[in-house]
Amino acid sequence: MRVAVLGAGVIGKLRCDTVMDNSRTDLVAVVDVDEGRARAAAARSGARALTDFTEAVRERDVDAVVVSSPVHLHEEMCLAAFEAGAHVLCEKPLSNSLASCRRIRDAARSAGVVLATGFNHRYYPSVKYLTDVLERGTIGTVDHLRVFGGHDGQGSFRQDWMYKGELSGGGAMMDVGIHMTDLVHHVAGRIVEVSGIATRGVWKVEGSEDNAMAVMRTERGVPVTFQATWTEWKGYRIFLEAYGDRGMVRAYYAPMFNQLITQEKPGAGRKRSFRFYPEIILREKLRGWETTTRQSFVEELDDFLGMIGGASVRLADGDAGVHAVEVAEAVYRSTRERRTVTLPLD
Asked: Per the confidence metrics, is the pTM higher than 0.85?
């Protein structure tokens, strides 16, 4: 399968590497406004290095496109790819507004091509362990979830489009929070109710909240307490906790680990166990967080090819991409209107 990667920044370079290393894909074009960066990302493949994304799909010699550009460019790049008949794997968030996300999804449907959304946290080993525990019924009936994602804010961003609301679509909710609401969707079903509040009293960036907190409910009736933050002064960390009538399971990163507590019934004796990932922790210390992200991209690309072939896979589809932004918009609406918001949004 002939693949073009649009955007050759840190994430785009990792995407290029996974395409080059996959025996079922050929990297044929890399696009970036910085031609030197595109050339460097394409170097060991012989792919074309371009500065205009329309050139990558104009000749219709591309089967699939990976969009890893700034989020405000996602829509026009996706639509150009669909027009050329190419499948698309688009980085999260799918776009910077709900209306734009819906246009992307609808255009993919009209073109009859696959649209996938790059929620790579689904592939983190600790998250996969949690989903396995839930599928086995180890903790019984799920009663509720606790979800958290955060980092220390503006200094963590490499480019200003990552935190400016007019480009990114919002703040912490559209950044790390978008991953966390997708994980809720992934393990407990679509979110159907949101009561939230977003604040920007620390960094004070117009249109970009520092904190988003919410109580949610999924279609399966599972309540969720949620926070996304840019004021986690301890640094980057995320966790997803599921509580059942026979125990709880926690997925955490960084560092990567799991905790599992089981009991025969409420009030009975409890067994505790931990699952650590020393090879991941050591690898990240020596070679950086990018190594874990890259491995998730390897699995995501395999599933993208599977999705194109009609297989049922872990990969988030276009509907999941729309839903995650719909939840973010619901938090913003709930903040403005001071009420519980029901999804789907009008």
From this structure: yes
